[in-house]
Design brief:
Blueprint (H helix, E strand, L loop, with lengths): L1 E6 L7 H14 L3 E5 H11 L5 E2 L11 E6 L1 H6 L1 H4 L6 E5 L9 E2 L3 H10 L2 E12 L3 H4 L3 E2 L2 E5 L7 E7 L2 E8 L1 E5 L7 H4 L11 E7 L9 E4 L4 E6 L4 E6 L2 E6 L3 E16 L4 H9 L10
Parallel strand pairs: 1-2, 1-4, 2-3, 4-5, 5-6
Antiparallel strand pairs: 7-8, 7-18, 9-12, 9-16, 10-11, 10-15, 12-13, 13-14, 15-18, 16-17
Amino acid sequence: MKIALYGRQVKLNGFESFYQILTKLLVTHNIDYEVYNEFAEFLNESYGIKCRSCEKEFITPANFDCLISLGGDGTALDTLQIVKGSGLPVMGINLGRLGFLANIKMDEVEEAVLSLKNGDTSIETRAVIEIESNIKAINSFPFALNDFVVQKRDTSAMITVKASLNGNFLNNYWSDGLIVATPTGSSGYSLSCGGPLIFPGSKALIITPIAAHNLTVRPAVIPDDNILEIETSARADTVLITLDSRSFIVPSSTKLKIKRAPFEFNMLQLKGTTYMDTIRNKLLWGADKRDTN
């Protein structure tokens, strides 16, 4: 078995000792590993850790059994640009806070390594969205695992987002912006703006306005085989578009299409772990935190 390791170039308290524990476990269980080259350079420069590195184009199912993401959900989202449509599964070990995608805790790392070794894991497929536009910067990698967001910049007036589904007019959103989230992204920005939680595997997308001017406008759930067309306008010259953690400043009069991508993202989960477990653990559903003394 051979795995690839990926992390962001950010120093974290306690990371060095955790990394040593992880790699020692991999060696003990005869699991070969290589480190994404930019992360390997960071480890060497920041911690003096030297390791075998690999280029992004070699992180494929032909060369590795999986990719392990070391960090929070943002780090796990980054791996979409590495695995793309190859189908290589990603396991997220959470070194951050909430961790919906990277939901394996640091103290579960030994269990995770043993599960990998014994094949005692399950694959959870996650929908990806694709953006069609004439914006070169976006077209270099027009995909998102979490969400697409268009919003006003700085303190300018609200923007207008005209939305149509399959060529049929849906609504004019007068708001600070609009979020189009996948089921994976339903627990992120969309949730904080009043959107619903959608379980992974649901064939749906969520359209969530950000601070809508019209109080009758609410989030909408649409089938993910629809094509959503949006056209933006604003008093300012530009608006901000984000795809997961990537941001683009584009002209305020921008047209684009949003649809489900032709491939899925594969998350490796420990067997017995469910999305309901994650919700309860991260959002404290079903927990009574009142002091009973």
